[in-house]
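# step 3/5: fold
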Amino acid sequence: MNRHQLFITTKLWNDDQGYEETLRAFDKSLKTLGLDYLDLYLIHWPVTGKFKYSWRAMEHLYQQGKVRAIGVSNFNPHHIETLLEDAKIRPAINQFELHPLLSQVPLRAYCAEQNIQVEGYSPLGTGKVLTNSSVNEIAKMHDKTAAQVILRWTVQHGIITIPRSINPEHVVSNANIFDFELSAYEMEQIDTLNEDKRNNSDPEDF
């Protein structure tokens, strides 16, 4: 497969944050992956007192052409506002936990205002959402699985979604969501499932 057919993302881990530290971590990642550039590099968490220096290093890497896009992960609006005080380049992406039980509507709206693409991880949430009666009724109507319905919900909201699986059948199934469309009513039904329920760390308590 041609390298240009792949979109490769990696993250800057918390212990590697800081200006020089970020540059070293990036070089180590490139060497480990056997690449000469990355498509996307993300700050994994907003480490207080360090993420602005990390961002400055990432801007440098972007300007050198070593990475095609730079972004953040698990950043709330006030973290992004702090970053933008000195940033020369606006984050292309904000990646954060997002699923029907944690729909993150205010954060999604903020990112839209700032022209920052939303990327959601843990899109299937917990087993609770997969067994939800409304989701399964919608799935039955479309002859799809509950997981496919939830992934379709994210796509129709304009969210880049990242379902993880080591099961080849699940990988294929998760990609098979572009041959149907949820109605406005079905989208609203899933929207109402929000409980602000996290499965991962809260950036405010990190």
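# step 4/5: annotate
The CA atoms of residues 27 and 36 lie 9 Å apart.
# step 5/5: archive (pending)
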